[in-house]
Amino acid sequence: MSEITQPVTSTPPVRRLAENSPIVLFGLLVILCIAISIGSPQFYSVENIIAILRQCSLVLIIGAGMTMLLIAAEVDLSVGASLAFAGVVAMDVTNQTSNVWLGVGAGILFGGFVGLVNGLIVTRLKVNSLIATIATMMILQGSVFLYSRQAIQNHNQLPAFTALSTGYLGPVPVPVVIAAIVFAGTFVVLRHTVFGRYIYAVGANRQAARLSGLKPERLTLLVFVITGLLTGLSGLILASLMNAGQPTAGRGFELTVIAAVILGGTSLSGGRGTLLGTLLGVVTLQVINNGIIILGWDQELQMVVPGVVIVLAAYLDLVRRRAGAR
Amino acid sequence: MPADLTMSAPIATSYAGPALEMTGIGKRFPGVLALENVDLTLEPGKVHALMGENGAGKSTLIKILAGVYQKDAGSMRIGGAETAFKTPRDALRQGVKVVFQEIALISEFTVAENIFLEEYPTDAVGSIRWTTIRKDAAALFERIGFGVDPAAKVGNLPVSQQQMVEIARALAHRARIVVMDEPTSSLTPKEVDLLFAVIRRLTGLGIAVLYVTHKLDEVFEIADTVTVLRDGRHISTKPIAAHSHDSLIQDMIGRRIENLFPRSRGPARGETILSVEGLSTSKLKDIAFEAKAGEVLGFFGLMGAGRTELAKAIVGFDPIRTGRITIGGKRLAPHDTRTGVSLGIGLLTEDRKSEGLMLELPVLQNTSLAALGNFARSGFVDEGSERSAVQEFVDRFRVKTPSLNQPIKNLSGGNQQKVLLARWLMRGLKVIVVDEPTRGIDVGAKSEIFALIDRLAGEGLAVVMMTSEMPELLGLSDRIAVMAEGRITKILNRDEATQEAILNAAIG
Amino acid sequence: MPQSASVSTFRDTNSARDLLVSLFRRNETVLLLCLVVLIAYFSFASGSFFTVRNITNVLGQASLAMIAGIGVGVLIIAGEIDVSIGSLAGAVAIPLVVIMNHGGSLELGIAGALALALLVGAINGYLAAYLGINSLIVTLGSMFVIRGGIYLYTGQKAIPDKQGLESFYQIGNGRLFGTVPYPALVALALLIGFMYLMRHRPFGRKIYAVGGNPEVARLAGFNVKRIKFLCFIISALLAGIAGILLSSRLGSAVHVAGLGFEFQVVAAVVLGGVSLAGGVGSLFGVALGVLILSFLSNGLGMLNLATEWQLVTTGAIIIAAVGFDEMKRRRQ
Lengths: 326, 508, 332
Known about the structure:
CATH topology of chain A: ABC transporter involved in vitamin B12 uptake, BtuC
Shape of chain A: globular
Number of domains of chain A: 1
Strand order of the largest sheet of chain C: 1-4
Number of strands of chain A: 4
CATH architecture of chain A: Orthogonal Bundle
Radius of gyration of chain C: 22 Å
Shape of chain C: globular
Order of helices and strands of chain A: HHHHHHEHEEHHHHEHHH
Helix content of chain A: over 70%
Oligomer: heterotrimer
Number of helices of chain C: 15
């Protein structure tokens, strides 16, 4: 039947909904917000909204990189471990040099270095990125303890370091500003640049991309490095939030990020996904988390809900793909 | 029904009447009527050919026979008894074995294990009898005269031998009806002869063979009867003697195509653009040739002669050992598609799905992929000019698509091929290498692709065309290079190229 | 006829070499060699490594990963994956300990634990095999849900075993004739059983066929969905058994038990030569993969290296092994 152009048939409503996942997700988000605010009016308080946004920004910064990676048909499970390590490095360098900016640079560069290593393993050694990044996750988790057994405190109590997470730019918290910049940048890259279009091409069909004169290995490597840099940035903000470099921070964070990206409609098989979807996915997950807290439910539900949501999102993605494949 | 392969047991039993009678078969998919009122009767010991263009309903019909699809209407009788298959296993149990084009074997398993895949012989406690499997497979091969090692891993065998394994599998299950779907599509002429010998042996055993193909020559060689389908309908069933080439084609396409190869351009007089010297890879040996602007240089070769390997080597897709490729006087860095594309050489791949199309992405992205740089301003894509340029090509090539945003997987093979061709032309090439440009494309779209290739050469491109289809080769080429075992054995001019001369050179 | 004799000797040496080459092409041979070299090295480097006590200790520790690895191996051969096994191994301890704390017998507790594993396997299997959702996502999801469920139920504290049944202690810590740990016996029995299943039962062959080429398997009349579903059940039940033994070793239901276990197991399975693409690999290889990682981590401990080095080396070895394998494949 492959030779026959797709017949136009009436689509059942479930499928039609699934085909518009950003709208569905947005609707879901609105309903959630209304429901939670009925249960607890303080949901709309400025403090709470700022808390939500702050949480979102950590996930979104890495999520932007992860979205690009999944579109390029790769994945990075080491971001959680890298996040913690980058925070430790940033704090340590800040302490040693008493210079916040050197610390900031070191943290981000460390993340970028991890991304580079991941990218080289995947593109040069041709190791499946799932396995490769599980392995680098192990290496990072082990070596961060070899680097420092306990959390590294902000010895000099430099206020500039804490300001990275708790400061404000006008009325907006600094991490939110950073996340917004990262979001806008990544959005433009994916939507409007040649590089962004190449990422989609590499994820959709690697061989076709190469045949058309692209360098899939180089592009993949670059996306790994970008994800790494963003992970470093996020690790920095987390360290600032805790006012310490904590080796155990970020455990399981990779799964939160991936859950949010997939919830946003990015396909695991590569070539499809949008950053807007990721934003909605991140916000939805964080609103759920926030709702669990302010409604006074068990905090442990914060693990259960994303688990259910991620499976549901994958199911919707499947329904959508089957609808397209008819 | 565990297979009994002792030397004394008959391999097949035949019926007195027809082996299979299908009448009024209908099958509907959402939005499409795939088959309507189709009749088919197979006689034991005879080869029945089933012909038709792509989309005529051949594959739907054989999938019903294989138990993959269920018919919506009509009746099916085997040996006179009404029946229907719910699963492939049902079909096999009732003696129908379909050998699909995509070989249905587990490549990690041995030949012997694949033969017994459906019914592993087991002992009293349910363990597999591996010795029985090995012995019986060897006995079966000896009996039917196939030279295949039962202990070999299927993945290590050439396609032709894998086909033999599939047929042996049918015999092991005492199939009385064997359906073959385009069995020669990847065989060398020698292997085709071997296959035909096997088919004759099958009919000698009283097995009814349904032979599905679009190759006319084969039908005249092997078939007793021909049924033609068109647009899901039964058009004709006649003894082969009642047909001529023309009458068969007419039944298939419903109209006469006067000239499949409209050649509009004059003789090529351009200067040399592509030159290849001393090119060797693991499969190719010392290849040298030149291609001029405005000419179509056809490459012919039998399966395994190295055409696709050559195509991939000269565009820089595959690594090379030695050799020098120059385009417009500039040397191409080996194994580097990027400089290849920027020097102006591109490959229209034979494997659209895995090397050409980005199936999930829209027509727009698929068309502009190679030329994206043309629409870039300091790294940003100017979407307005991109869209209008793509639209221009879509119109010019008459690509049938509802919109530029349509995912390309929803287009037909012919339209997909046009998009891939447009991808290269947008980039602006000097040399285009086309590998089997009409594979999997129906007759109507074929002549459009031919016309496009002809026009490209007319506009001054050098076209290097790899093909295994003789009419295509003779119709379009200015010169013909013949390959055998990784070498160029002969380069013929258009006027000296005859089928005989080409085949002689191809056999090497 | 000296000439023909020389021809035949030539052929003999040739076939002997072929045999050697094909032996070395086999993944298992290489792994076995690695294991031997590893053990030899540590025996030289540390006096207390090659002792009955230590070797049996390692075998006892390795057996949990081996039991779970068999299940994950079967599932990956079928072309799917399960990363919820770590959470599940932790979760089964809850019904086990709670039932015993309420006066139930060990057998009843085990039945409860396995029932939970069965339920999880069935849900994973239904979502992945029947609904067709990517199994990595499904089991990533259930990994979250189960761990969250554990935290919810336990309030992030361990549930101690109050009854203190000797039999409960024995299953994880006891030794046959005072030497061979019971978990190692369980692992060995399961390994032999599943190797037999995968090689000599039609069902095992169908698992390979389904992972190697689902379309062909379907055409051959196999119920692909059901076979995959059953593999999820196998994986979950074996993870459950590993979890029961783990909880016996810990003497309680610990809320963080099995954290990261899934990654260790998947790593060992892949190291053992099971391809993530499905249809390729052997359980013997899986067993070797588990043993190599276990002896490695024990040996490094013996050399007084910080335990974190074990994580680092394990990760590095996985990258090296898979990268090497990939290089070998490309060369062919």
